[in-house]
Structure formats: C-alpha cells, structure tokens
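anyone seen this seq b4? input:
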Amino acid sequence: MNQIVFDESMVEQLEAVYRTRDVMRRRRLIREALGARPGERILDAGCGPGFYVSELLDEVDPGGLVVGVDVSPQMLAVAARRTEGRPGVELREGSVGSLPVKDDEFDGAICVQVLEYVEDATAALAEIRRTLRPGGRAVVWDVDWATVSWHSNDPARMERVLRGWDDHLTHPSLPRTLAARMRTAGFTDVRAEGHTFATAEFTPESYGVATLSVIENYLAPRGEEVHEWAAEQRELGARGEFFFACIQFCFTGTRPA
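predicted toks r here
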C-alpha cells in the first residue's frame, strides 16, 4: 500500500473536491444521519479541512462543541482557517486509533472515509465508542471501491488504473465488514444505507469527474498510462459518452446506555 501524502498540493486539490455538488450532498446525508442538536458535543474523527466541523457548529449552536481530530497538520491548518473566530470548536492533532479526547465526552461522532486507511479498523471503532456517552450516536461513512462502474473503450486499462488506485487503501471494500466490526466494537442498533453517486455528464461537480483528477495525480509517478486513461475519459466526456457510478455507505450505531 502507498497511501496518499497530504502535502500542500494534495490538500488544495482535496479541498476543491470537497466543494463539489456531490460531496456537498454527501455532507448533507451524513449530517442528517447524525442529527446533531443545539448544545451537543460532537466529534469529527478525521476532520480533514474542516467542512463538517464548520457545518456542525451551526447545528450545535448555541452552547455546543465540535472537536475535530486529524493526523495531518496541513489539514488542521486549513480547518483552523475555516473556523477561525468561531466559538465552540477545538482542533486536535491525533489519529483515529488513539483519539486525544476523554472517555464519555461526546453525544455524537462522525468518521467519514477514514477507516478505509486504518489497519485495525475495528480497534478504531472501539476508540470512537470510548469517546461517546451512553446513548451516543456514531456515523461512519466509507466507499466500497469494488462497486465502481466506469465506462472505457479500453476495459483492461481501466481495470489496471482502478487496481492501482486501490493500492492507496488498506481496505478497498471496507463497507462489507463494517456492520460486523461496529458490533464487535460495542455498538448496537447498527444500520447501513447505500447511496449511489452516478453521472452520465462530464461535470466537475460530480464525484466521478472530481475523483478522476485525484487518481491521475496519485498514479502519475507510475508512467504515462494513467494520463492516457484520463485523456480518454475527457474525450468521452466531450462526446457525451462519459459514465461513472459507485455506491457509498452510511453506517449508524449507538453506544448502549
């Protein structure tokens, strides 16, 4: 596995992706699943550039608190700029496997597309459970990359590119085991819901087109094939023949009272 390095260039690229229509839709779905209320304390485990932190602040105001934790100082710096001057927010450096927070501290927690990178995802889920008060809710969101359906006139090359992209993940199909992992970690009332992200238009607002550039940049050091693949996708888009779909999964669970 060769994980993405969250340097300044990658952080800038990902922040642009987080502003797209499809990712904004995803944030709405996750906030709805969590149902944060005024005065609550919420944890964002793997907060990235702070979009969820900022939006959850609006939901827990007045009197609430949102704590964002991330392993990347570059991401935390962006999150700090996004929430600068706002009360009720704390940003802390740390990993999801060893969260720098107290036991029983939060009413709710979210963890969005983070556990697919974590070797012991079950232990990380137990760590999230530790931070919740009895009755606290958790929302975990991840992608099953095996569900990707992506049109190409060169299916073999497409397969190689997608397998190369899988190399940056510890668990390319984590959702298949997430419900069982959550139960093992001590959550009850575990539920899963799948959400399709699909487009037949080559628009940068779609998850597929936004992901294309991230994949191209990640695989660029491996040679020209990824650029040929990306060029074909742009040509398909110009001809009205682009198609991308994948399923992303929202898991919810509760710490027993």
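The two ends are 39 Å apart (CA to CA). The mean pLDDT is 94. kinda curious what u guys think
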